[in-house]
Amino acid sequence: xxxxxxxxxxxxxxxxxxxxxxxxxxxxxxxxxxxxxxxxxxxxxxxxxxxxxxxxxxxxxxxxxxxxxxxxxxxxxxxxxxxxxxxxxxxxxxxxxxxxxxxxxxxxxxxxxxxxxxxxxxxxxxxxxxxxxxxxxxxxxxxxxxxxxxxxxxxxxxxxxxxxxxxxxx
Length: 170
What we know:
Four Helix Bundle (Hemerythrin (Met), subunit A); 7 helices; mainly alpha; globular
């Protein structure tokens, strides 16, 4: 890691693309009440809130704070987490959405202070074998793709819930 606070042009462009997808995630959910956020609408049974919690924990926290930064506290706590797709019924929906926002801010701090060519600080070989990603750049591209894919899932879920569409092509 470097001490940079302003990412280079490439990293800034990748972060901008990621932020666009993050805004999509939150934007497509805007206006849904708690019941709608928790209602499964696809046969697999996941709900919008579970997907957002997955993005907060399994994507933002895991990839940036654990894999890229090697934060020992995060790594040690990973084994203690439940299935991120399952949200405790007593946990307010606002807390899940706020956690996602919080994890994106923490991820941004890692991204903006790390050179794109920096090697990964940690990789769970015992779970995933040899790493298929090797640098911050690789992780950014992976997370952009995963977040965009899940934004599409939320688009479909939202349309099934109340008919609202994020992107309308005429």
